[in-house]
Amino acid sequence: MDRPASGVSYQRFPRVRIRELKDDYAKFELRDTDASMANALRRVMIAEVPTVAIDLVEIEVNSSVLNDEFIAHRLGLIPLTSAAAMNMRFSRDCDACDGDGSCEYCSVEFHLAARATDSDQTLEVTSNDLRSTDPKVCPVDQARAYQHALGGSEPYDTATAADQRGILIVKLRRGQELRLRAIARKGIGKDHAKWSPAATVTFMYEPEIRINEELMETLTLDEKQGLVESSPTKVFTIDPNTQQVVVEDAEAYTYDDEVIKKAEAMGKPGLIEINAKEDSFIFTVETTGAITAYELIMNAITVLRQKLDAVHLQDDDGDLGELGAHLVGG
Amino acid sequence: MNAPDRYERFVVPEGTKKVSYERDTKIVNAGSFTIEREDHTIGNILRMQLHRDPNVLFAGYKLPHPLQYKIIVRVHTANLSTPTQAYTQAINDLDKELENLKKAFEDEKIRYEERPKQGY
User: Record's HAMAP family (chain A) (predicted)?
Assistant: First the structure.
């Protein structure tokens, strides 16, 4: 086998096509790369793109029915707008403070004070009652309501009345009170799922469906109907004009092999062939609202590049080390 | 409580090298890279990229234990290359691929947002 000298590049040039892009949702095609790259991107989006979430809670008064740690946990899970997270510092390597959350580079302080006054109504304490000290970081539904108040000309506006109520933290009965100070910090999903910006990130191989038209012609209309119906998802349909079996939605196929088994059961193996294209992926990305879907994708690429940069061999154990070892007697 | 800190899973402890290379004692042009605090994300893309290099005779990675936060990438090359050269090349290629991908996404976003104006 002919082998080129080392130092030749085997780089790929992936192609992208966006099908749908909303604030918290994206669907796109990724081509000319392999499953390892698609999966690395997926894994980074879920576990390694940083966001901001409440991490430290000091409770001053809590006479609600929920205990302190229960409330602290619920506060942590509230998604906060994290567009600035990529440029923030992790508290553990912030040198401007001791990681106690008193510095602007690594933390944001929140205050919450709620007391059910003497009415018979239960008071719902929600994320809307959280007061942030930094306008860039606030609960995502507050940010959305704010956008709405500004004129509400979001291109992908999906806000409904239900969104305006905020995320429920605890309900207070007459006389009960909740007062606390919370510190939000930057973190990643690997540390705790509350920092994951991803609601779902999935990818599938693009299916390639081939129908053997010659063999298909030998089928009666009833048999064709049976074949179409054998698929649990609506992949095929019958063209009302030509009465031919046509692919309606190739991506509805779940790689269940049902139509192929059906074709074999009818004594027509090879009637339909379905292959997964190994260099073509369809991604679905949904975020919690902490960052936009586009930001999530871009940040994932940046984070993955940082990770690759970190695994570069250092000079002292690089080529020289190899050469030196050979000189000594390799 | 004696639970270890959660960040121990992804922060390289002080005094530990992120990557270390150890030559195979019996085979020339073979050796393994131990990468601290990395997992399948890096291991698998690195392995697949090494497979694209015809000078690489073998490339594989393993996560020795789920509670040891490191991976071991083993590489064996033909004599025109060395494991360190192949390893460095693979990382550089992946980095360029991602640089390209980022650019592709930026261009595609512009194209996607221009589309409705053109009356598609």
Answer: RNApol_arch_Rpo3 (MF_00320)
**Looking at the partner chain, which of B20, B80, B84 has a beta carbon nearest the beta carbon of A5?**
B80
What's the predicted TM-score (pTM) here?
Answer: 0.89
ipTM above 0.90?
Answer: yes
What is the Rg, in whole angstroms, of the alpha carbon atoms belonging to chain B?
19
pLDDT beyond 80 at B7: yes
The encoded tokens of residue A275 equal: 């292959």
Q: What residues have CB less than 8 Å from A197, skipping those under 6 apart?
A: A45, A49, A51, A79, A82, A189, A287, A288, A290, A291, A296
d(CA B92, CA B2): 41
pLDDT tens per residue across span B21-72: 999 999 999 999 999 999 999 999 999 999 999 999 999 999 999 999 999 9
Tokens at residue B56, please?
A: 């690489």
Q: Are B51 and B64 in contact (CB under 8 A)?
A: no
With H, G, I as helix, E, B as strand and everything else as coil, classify residue A43.
helix
Strand segments (E) across A166-213? 168-172, 177-187, 198-211
Token pair of B19 as six digits: 């990557």
Q: If you average pLDDT over residues A149-176, what whole number do you get? A: 73
Does the beta-carbon distance from A301 to B6 stay under 8 Å? no
Phi and psi based region of residue A264 (left: phi greater than 0; alpha: psi -120 to 50; beta: remaining): alpha
Interface of A with B in 95-124 (CB under 8 A): none
Query: How many Cα atoms within 13 Å fall on the side-chain side of residue B31?
Result: 24
DSSP per-residue string spanning A109-178: EEEEEEE--SSSSPEEEEGGG-EESSTTS-BHHHHHHHHHHHT---TT----GGGGG--EEEEE-TT-EE
- Looking at the complex, does the CB of residue A317 fall below 8 Å from at least one CB of chain B? yes
